[in-house]
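Ligand-bound model needed. adenosine-5'-diphosphate.
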Amino acid sequence: MTAGSPIIAPAGRLRRVEWRRHWRQLNAESRWGVVILALILVLSVSVPFLSPNDPYSFVDQPLQPPSAAFFFGTDHLGRDLLVRVFAAARLDIALAILGVSVPIVIGTFIGTLAGTTRNRVAETVWDGLVNALTAFPEIILVLGIVAMVGADIRGLLIAIWISRWAQYARIARAKSLALRDAEFVQAAQVLGYSQLRILVRHIMPNVFSEALAYALSDFIFIIVIIGGLSFLGLGVTPPTPEWGAMLAEGRLYLRTEPWLILFPGFFLSLTAIGVALLARGLERISKGEDE
Amino acid sequence: MLRLLRHPVLRRLAQAFFVAFLLMVFAFLLIRLIPGDPAMILLGDEATEEDVLAYRKLLGIDGSIPSQFGRYVANLVRGDFGVSIRSREPVLSIVGKRLPVSLWLTVTTIVMTVGLALPLGVAAALYRRTWFGHAFQIGASVMVATPVFFSGLLLILLFAVQVNLAPIAGYHAGFPANLYYLWLPALTINFVLVPVLARILQSSIVETSSEEFVEAAIIRGTQGWRFYWRYLLRPSLAPTIAALGYFAATVVSYAVIIEIIFNLPGLGMTLVDAVRNRDYPLVQGIVFLSGLLVVGLTFMADLVNGWLDPRAKIR
Amino acid sequence: MCISFGRRGGRKLPVIDAANLSLDRRQAVGIVGESGSGKTMLCRALIGTLPRHGAGIVSGTVRFDGQELAGAPERVWRGIRGREIGYIPQSSLAGLNPVLTVETQLVESIAAVGSMSRQQAREEAVALIERVQIPRAEQVLKARSHELSGGMRQRVMIAAAIAQGPKLLIADEPTTALDVTIQREILNLITQLRQELNMALILVSHDLAVIEEVCDEVMVMYAGASVEAGPVAALSKAPRHPYTRALRVSRVDRAVPGRDLEAIPGDAASVGSWPAGCRFWPRCALADEACRRDSQPALMPTGQQLSACIHAERMAELEQ
Ligand SMILES: Nc1ncnc2c1ncn2[C@@H]1O[C@H](COP(=O)(O)OP(=O)(O)O)[C@@H](O)[C@H]1O
Ligand code: SF4
Ligand SMILES: [Mg+2]
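Prediction:
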């Protein structure tokens, strides 16, 4: 900025400058991640919007290979695979965000609470609890809960929430253990703030940033669980367009019409790769490994 | 008694038992997640009072909660995991029948993991500044992010459809014939697992190689395999083994999906069928046992770790 | 000698660019300087392990018994390391492999000399352990690094370094991490072994007192350059470089209570941001315009020693 420019920039411009500043701080890995994710988001919004075809209805002869008319071909029920793949992108990404956001809040709160008590017995029991909950193989626990709650989207989300919060609680407890003796917390105590206020206003925000970093890798895991359970027919079920469910449908045509699995599988993997790149890039930035 | 707990192995064991107890509690609570009366859900609205009562007894949900829990624990200790609602067969005997397939899959997977991750991790560490190192990083990122149910289908497409090296699906018991049916499923799990472990091994070796004792060994004139094994690999193995224990849960998890894809009649397939059929006792039993299996595997990884690296033992 | 780290994009970052050191057979020379001044890098140059650390000798020579070693292939170095030059690495408390027993590592050192049966090598190891004055040799041989005290580990490292009867022993800060009584024992041990085995010694320390006790000659390093070198007695009695003087004053045993025991003011110049002129000028009380010009002054004879201070003569006056 030149010396003569106004100190207070118009809001829109400020935001643009902010964006550019953030972008410049990223390394190659995280930039690739951002580009990939942006591409998928744009496509998942625009493709179903621009295409005249509906993801649920028959449009043309079934099992057509990719062509100029249908970029990804048509599926076994004669639906436009392109539209279905990106309709699925919307649903999967939305579900994964929903799946991550509830455990992160619950887990962080419980973990911070656990981290700020100073009771030996409570600590031992706590360790056991979290160890036990995280000892269950993730997918098996989710399956178990889904079996009880119901094999549908609601059951799937509840299962994810119940089985994932402990990870965040673990992180939050470790971080808040370190924070509880930090200067600013003690300062707040000296000022006579209530325990709850210190917890919510002073400790939790700091713990939260740590949990967010983990949330990125958890996002990958959850999107795989959503796809996986739907693949098993126990989550999102046909005809709703969902990547895992589409793979399960397309699997029957593996020999002859492999594109039925290639397109949904590719974009599912690409989403996960985008998030993974972003997560790794950010991790390396925060460790100071890249300039 | 408390003095005994100072012994690290015994302390780990005590911890493992405590965790196993909590696993039991969770498994017990699982059936309470069912919204409404499980017996009614299973029987439908027209069920008679007697049927409902009989079903409650079958599910172990008659009487007060503490008495239910008491009976549940007592039964488990006696090895009674309940009875499948579908087949009326004891859960434990179903598990006993299906477990061998899953164990074979797990063992094949882990043998393959070690066989692939070890050389790959070492190579990635030694050649990390060459094209191989960069290709490894990119390849690993892509493989880790590919869901098993997609990579499994891709591998079938490649090995079973294109070149005829494996069956598309199915299983026949009996070693070594079963390996023909298991190698592709195991490879699919390793599609995710090997890159993760190889990466851990790689960074562990890189870290070790800047240790003072490596320099000391070089100056002493240690060379050849002895140098690589004693000074680079062995001190670096501990984190990798620990990770292998940590990923035991992941292996068991992915095995469920893999069994469905490859049509392997193991525990995973049984579980998925049980979920579809709302066979609550069977689900409960398998969830509990799989947790137990993971606790056991983690405990074993800890032991191996203590043997490989005395530094880990003193903690 | 100039040593640089290779950097991506071909830029090179010098860490040492004007260090000189020479010693005769059986002589003991000390290297002293603050941490980061390049002492360890210099030692690594002397045993040829710089490439492992991403560094290399850009110019200059390393000569041992008339043999040029700078840039020598690994094969040549293998014949030198251990056999001709023994080395005790810095922070040698981490110098033992934690997963191997002491015996395994000592036998490795011994076996490198020639063909020897397992039994012979074992006996030799026991003898070595006794030579570095460790009681209960059998027990220590079976131990692993974390089961030994700091002093014990250091003794084992010394045993490994002298196993092949080298002509020169390089000890990089052998006493830094130890407490005072153990420090003394280790120094005595090194002195004694040096006499018994007729070894020359290069002893690195950031503590001038340690050097004075053991060595005949000393070289002072600051920011990758030799700033003063000469007989120990001369440097400690009549330093001709302000940095040496500052090091001496900051010595514990000479400190006047309440006054002298202070760190040298200012921060050590760090690699990559050395000032122009004499590198010490930002911290030097005698610095003037002339000191800030040109580049690091070369060592020049003054008194009984060499000094890289352009005002060395004024130092001499001030000392009196
Ligand atoms: N691997 C490395 N990469 C870059 N710089 C290094 C590396 N190792 C050491 N240095 C730099 O080289 C300088 C000299 O280090 P060193 O020889 O260890 O100093 P000393 O032993 O005197 O404390 C230090 O300032 C350090 O920052
Ligand atoms: S040359 Fe100048 S700045 Fe450097 S030590 Fe001598 S007096 Fe100080
Ligand atoms: Mg050093």
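Residues 27 and 217 of chain B are 52 Å apart (CA to CA).
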